[in-house]
Amino acid sequence: MIKKDAHFDYVFVFSLYLIGVLLLFAYGFSRLNSEARERESWVSQQMTDVISEIQHFYEGKLAPSIPITDCDRFLQDSMPLLLSSPYIRSINVAHGGVIVCSSISKQTLKQIKNWNASGKQLELRYVTQTPFSELFPTHRQAILSLHFEKNRFYGMYIALYPESVFRTLGAPRFLQTVMRFENATFYSDGRIVDELNRLPSEQFFSVDSDISTTAFAKYIFYNYGVLLIAWTFIMLMSAKSLVRYLHTFSLDYWRIRKAIKQNQFHPYIQPVVNDCGEVTGGEVLVRWIHPKKGVISPADFIDRVEENGQIVEITSFLMQKCLSAFSKVNLPEARQHFRVGFNVCPIQFDSNSLCQDIENFQSAMADKPISLLIEMTERKEFSSNDKYRKAIHELRSRDVLVALDDFGTGHCSLKYLHDTEIDIIKIDMMYVATIESGNTEILDNIISLARSLDVILLAEGVETQAQFDYLKARNIERYQGYMFGKPLPIDEFIQKYLM
To answer: Are 210 and 344 members of one domain?
Structure first.
């Protein structure tokens, strides 16, 4: 039997909600990463430009002045470099570990603590203690140190403010941009961490981003919080509708769809007889002939195909097969006025397919004494009385007989009787079964109602002689049940009853 746990639908809806949230998070993360890359590129470019500017200015203007003979003249020549960038703090020339000329102390000698020649021509290092620490006790700085091969004791120290690059960039709202030097890491929130960083050969620094989980969460809620709340609200409001939709369009839908394409649905016909036991018609019943599972009863799939609309295509397919089979039959006189009954539900009146199928069937049977009976199933209710009346009017305008199937077990049987004229009432087998127990009050009331409306009665599910005798005594016109014949494939039915 085809079933689907409703819990799966809710899990699927919740998963759909999570997918939406994850897509939002993914988009936000992509945007945050894009912003991080832009900040990294900008910081890297700023540092690269200032280092390149220092190198070019040093080589063109300052290198020829070293060793220094006139500090004032040297400082005057270096002033354009000092003023060219907000990231340059000072320019200093040292000899043997002693600063001999500085834009800060001029010619006042300042000893460099723990000085040791590195042997590198160009070096960028962070130092916590400088010769001017007493002047700036709370300031920490990175030093760009230029050394010259011609005299290992002479060097130029240019103090930079890497944190000034971050200040120019602007304070980060949700992410940290990080500059890593050989012996220190600078964060855009102002933190400086003494640590050794492995940098590629001849690379003075690297730039990357540090995006914490907390920062990412803040970014998402700050920029997409309204959208997230809206998505949550939409999913909460539409959850039940989505569950109903998913309940309809499930894996079963695609299995049934495949079965339709592979012609696995076939018409079986159960005979309908009069009180003399003569076959006067038959009800077309669908059977799913599965290549592996065999014959699948309508009880296992009919509700699903009615919910998802596949019943329209299945009914059309059954009518075409019946039309093809009956068009080859020449009814003997004893079998005149044969009625073929098809079950339809309200959803089938929402398209033109049913009316077209009826028209095709009647046209093909025009020269044969075979009439069409539409049995209105009560498993589903019409959305309005107007739609129901319109449907009945459409059938009657095409000279189609109308029966109420399974009367008293579904939706609004009495309302349907009140609003329109019905040709046949089919008594459900559950009421026929009460004959054995003697509890026939409802059955008798149905019979009495039909007599007051002058409507033909057809008893379904007649299986015993006692049931038949009881119904016949009350002048029931038509019978259907295993006592008279079980549903047969259409070709077998025709061979047995109509040939």
So the answer is: no
